[in-house]
Amino acid sequence: MFAYIKGNLVEKLNNYVVVETMGIGYKIFMSETAIAGIGEVGDNVKVHTHYHVREDDISLYGFLSNDELKMFELLLSVSGIGAKSAITMLSHMSPSEFAMSIITNNLSKLTKIPGIGPKSAQRIVLELKDKLKTEQAISKTEEVSEVFRTNENAEEAISALQILGYHRKEIEKVLEKFDYQAIGVEDIIRNGLKYLGK
């Protein structure tokens, strides 16, 4: 419903902020990391939003970048993960760390997050890897550059970025903008997100 809200930051508390625009104050729930990075009360801010509707609750969740929003929506698609658990994960893990944890099956990193036990971590990896397989099946029908297939780091980074919801073709275009061959997987993901999130 709302892609983003731009306005004056009037309140900043532990788990939410209030942004006023056109005389309306929007209460937006955010991760601790996002609240810390949003700015000071009185600043003009832009918050990417997710309009969350359940039969007993209607809430707005906010993010400083599209990547955080994509990660949040991915987590909501995992059975048993609710909005509060997803926002807690965003307080403890960046989108690039999250994608790396999925493609490397790093369950121990996921279980360090409060409220995420071994079963939840396994479910997150399993369900999101299945989504990646579907995405890869789609990209096989498209024209895919062989250049990246021969570079293990690039291929791994592409898989991680696909988990975050980006299409292979747009990722490949972005990788051509920087020297991906000279850096590691996590740095490729980080650099990729800088361009993809614009």
Report on the structure:
By secondary structure, the protein is α+β, with helices and mostly antiparallel strands. The protein has a domain at 94-198. It has helices spanning 32-37, 66-76, 83-92, 95-103, 107-111, 118-140, 146-149, 152-163, 168-175, 185-196; strands at 4-12, 16-21, 24-29, 44-54, 57-63. Strands 1-2-3-5-4 form a five-stranded mixed barrel. Strand 1 (4-12) and strand 2 form a beta hairpin. Helix 4 crosses helix 8, helix 8 crosses helix 9 (168-175) and helix 9 packs across helix 10 (185-196). It starts with a strand and ends with a helix.
List low-confidence stretches.
none
What is the terminal separation in angstroms? 20 Å
Write the element-wise H/E pattern from the N-terminal end onward. Answer: EEEHEEHHHHHHHHH
Strand fraction equals 15-25%
The proportion of residues forming helix, as a percent range, comes to 40-55%
Gross morphology: globular
Main sheet: strand order = 1-2-3-5-4
Q: By helix and strand content, what is the structural category? A: alpha+beta
Please tell me the overall pLDDT.
85
The major β-sheet equals: 5 strands, mixed, barrel
Instruction: Determine Rg (CA atoms, Å).
Output: 18 Å
Number of strands: 5
**What count of helical segments does DSSP give?**
10
